[in-house]
Amino acid sequence: MGQGFDTKSVHITMKRDGIPTKVTPIHQTSAFTFKDLEDIENFYTGERDYLYTRVGNPNTDELGQAVAKLEGAPSGIATSSGLSAILVGLLSVVKSGDHVLASNDLYGGTYELLANELTEFGIEVSFISFDAEIEEHIQPNTVLLYTESITNPLLRVENLKKVVEIAKKHQLKTMIDNTFATPYLVQPYVLGVDLVVHSATKYLGGHSDITAGVVVGSENLIANARKKCVNLGANLSPFEAWLTVRGMKTLGVRMERHVQNAQKLAKSLEEHPAVRRVYYPTFVSEQGNGAIVTIELAENADIDTFFQSLAWIKIVATLAGVETTVSYPIGTSHRNLPEAAQKELGITKGLVRISVGIEEASDIIEAITHALNIAKK
Ligand SMILES: *Cc1c(COP(=O)(O)O)cnc(C)c1O
Q1: pTM (two decimals)
Q2: What pLDDT, on a 0 to 100 scale, did the predictor assign at position 16?
Q3: In the sheet that 213-217 helps form, which strands lie side by side, from edge to edge?
């Protein structure tokens, strides 16, 4: 299909029988009815759809398929959150006794899931720098390489081609969290990655009004993930799936503005005397370098004053909404990372993550610069 990204995004709605609504209706129901016993049998033989919403619902299916389409993957499934998408994706390929080789600069919640929860179920996990020699750390029981296309909060751009190459050589599976990049910038499945996960809470939804996740991949792996999602009760509500699909129609135009604004903001902060370092990728894709700008304040700047001087910019523990927001990784998302890991990665007390919104770039630059000017001692 030769359609452009925006054409695909806008026409993501699934067409269904019945009343010719322009937009898919919200199937806000916990269950579906049957005409007779044969009709029930038909569900199990695949001749009709839908039994019970935990097992499947038109709106959650629509979301899974929409993300799969934008990622260039055959199949996808929506889940209750980004973290449950990661759990369901992981459990569709690893079991007790297996070893996961994970990048050491993951989202804090993913780190906790891997380090504290999966290990209790007998899954072995090692965290290593994916910039270093990955192959040295592969064990006989390694089954999966896990990393993020753009890492959080320091925005390291993963070399996906290298990761896929190593995995193929050693017959491992790969799973990539594509939340920060979105399929607008990077399509890991197309590059040979097995499973791609999203916190749809972020750019896919885009409006900070839902919590949702999606896993996409081959028909086989997603069938496996679907089984896990059903059995673990990790399903998404139909309304939230509907809102996410609604948001996704503007993913392309939002990302275009997000990325332009971030590029301008990153450039404007480079020379600021209250900023020691600007973290912003130099190359993610032809479409741009992402919409998160992380800065480390200089010694001479007071972090509390900075956060108190942000005017209309809100302080939150999330990212990727249409409005510019700031967050404090060491106080929130990366709070529970061991101190040694925080230090090694550079997650310091001066680190601020800016999720650049779609407002006028000049207004964003002015507000952040103003806070920095006041914070400078
Ligand atoms: C937010 C986030 C998650 C977790 O998603 P939830 O929707 O909060 O469960 C996972 N990975 C990344 C990169 C995130 O930013």
Answers
A1: 0.94
A2: 67
A3: 75-79, 213-217, 195-199, 173-177, 142-148, 99-103, 124-128
